[in-house]
Amino acid sequence: EEFNGQCFSVSSGKSVTINYIKKFINNLHSVKWAHVPQRDGDIKHSTAVGNRLQDVGWIPKVSIDDGLGRCFEFK
Length: 75
What we know:
The chain contains three helices and no strands. By secondary structure, it is mainly α. The longest helix has 11 residues, at 18-28. The chain is extended, with a radius of gyration of 16 Å. The N and C termini lie far apart (36 Å).
């Protein structure tokens, strides 16, 4: 089915914290993190919901851990 140029949010609908992602990366790589104060307009909590994609039968198949692992996998 054609999507006619529509935009879709791709997500699992589950929240994950920046600290969770930071710990995940730290387990794989040595990273020097820069801690900065929160800025005006920063979003404190957000959960993307892919309802429109789910309406056309799409379901998430990759967990956050698997997805992050794929992003930071170096060979």
